[in-house]
């Protein structure tokens, strides 16, 4: 097997396959989505661990199994061939496998605001389930537009704070019902253009608007777009399920392409480390059963 992506989903899948004495090659370009974050949350037993430390521990655990190998680098191509797939790495080997697992994740499109990259992961966050608790009861700015990405996102943050401002960086795009709901929860909508994000010397985040308004807050939560980290699934013919996911069997990770599994953030809209790791384990169990049937050990 080849697993493309060495994050929580890919490592979990390789761990289980290694324990089944299956030969697995993990190809990892080191582009994990949460690499900018200072801590990982919501993972029972590893609450608050740094993402880099979590990955180091995971790699060490997987490395115990002699049938698993690591290959650092970018996978540039994957094609379906008779009996499986052929996978090509940039400047590296060409590998053949009977099953291919894509755990390549997604990448967030940061707000097109000066200073966004500098505070990403420390003052600018995409996931309140990951970082809302640490910013509870503090003033928060929500960056987004429309009923779903703006209004509903801001309203969902009322679980963590009641001092919220929705900045839409232009026309809000919100309907009357959404605006009425925001007013009911005292969430003002600021349609001025956002000039910059900055972290001030005394700690707070500043959101500076075009008219000179300065909003000081504990953090900014944004809800813009994200895209697949890799286009391998699309090139292999995997059916899409929305703009950021592939059509898969939820219980197994099987895609619409025979022998191709898509797991982790690349597969769905529940972007949590613990969910990704669970998907990796479930896919591994399904792969092992499928290979046993292919080899005539179990009935087809």
What does this entry look like structurally?
The protein is elongated and about 70 Å long. The longest helix has 22 residues, at 273-294. The two termini are 20 Å apart. It is an alpha/beta fold and 300 residues long. The model has no long low-confidence stretch (mean pLDDT 92). Strands 3-2-1-7-18 form a five-stranded parallel beta sheet, with helices on one face. The chain has two domains: 2-108 and 225-294, FAD/NAD(P)-binding domain; 116-222, FAD/NAD(P)-binding domain. Strand 4 and strand 5 form a beta hairpin. Helix content is 26%, strand content 24%.
Descriptive terms for the model:
300 residues; alpha/beta; FAD/NAD(P)-binding domain; 2 domains; five-stranded parallel beta sheet; 8 helices; 26% helix; elongated
Describe the SSE topology.
Layout lengths: L1 E3 L3 H12 L4 E5 L22 H12 L5 E5 L2 E7 L2 E6 L4 E4 L2 E3 L3 E3 L7 H4 L4 E2 L2 H4 L8 E4 L3 H10 L7 E4 L8 H9 L4 E2 L3 E6 L5 E5 L4 E4 L1 E4 L3 E3 L3 H4 L24 E3 L10 H22 L6
Parallel strand pairs: 1-2, 1-7, 2-3, 7-18, 9-16, 10-11, 10-16, 11-12
Antiparallel strand pairs: 4-5, 5-6, 8-17, 13-14, 14-15
């Amino acid at each position: 097997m080849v697993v493309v992506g060495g994050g929580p989903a890919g490592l979990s899948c390789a761990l289980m396959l290694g324990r089944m004495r299956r030969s697995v090659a993990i190809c990892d370009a080191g582009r994990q989505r949460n690499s900018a974050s200072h801590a990982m949350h919501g993972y029972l037993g590893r609450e608050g661990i740094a993402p880099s430390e979590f990955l180091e521990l995971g790699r060490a655990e997987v490395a115990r199994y002699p049938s698993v190998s690591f290959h650092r680098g970018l996978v540039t191509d994957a094609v379906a061939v008779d009996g499986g797939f052929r996978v090509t790495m940039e400047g590296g080997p060409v590998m053949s496998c009977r099953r291919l697992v894509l755990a390549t994740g997604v990448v967030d499109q940061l707000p097109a605001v000066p200073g966004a990259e500098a505070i990403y992961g420390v003052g600018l966050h995409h996931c309140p389930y990951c970082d809302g608790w640490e910013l509870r009861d503090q003033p928060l700015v929500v960056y987004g537009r429309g009923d779903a990405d703006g209004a509903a996102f801001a309203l969902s943050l009322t679980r963590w704070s009641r001092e919220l401002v929705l900045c839409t960086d232009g026309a809000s795009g919100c309907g009357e019902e959404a605006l009425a709901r925001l007013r009911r929860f005292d969430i003002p909508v600021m349609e001025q253009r956002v000039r910059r994000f900055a972290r001030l010397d005394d700690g707070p985040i500043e959101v500076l608007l075009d008219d000179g308004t300065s909003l000081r807050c504990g953090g900014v939560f944004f809800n813009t777009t994200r895209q697949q980290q890799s286009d391998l699934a699309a090139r292999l013919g995997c059916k899409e399920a929305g703009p950021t996911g592939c059509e898969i069997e939820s219980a197994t990770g099987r895609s619409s392409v025979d022998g191709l599994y898509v797991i982790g953030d690349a597969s769905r809209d529940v972007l949590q480390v613990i969910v990704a790791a669970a998907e990796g384990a479930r896919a591994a169990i399904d792969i092992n059963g499928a290979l046993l049937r292919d080899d005539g050990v179990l009935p087809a």
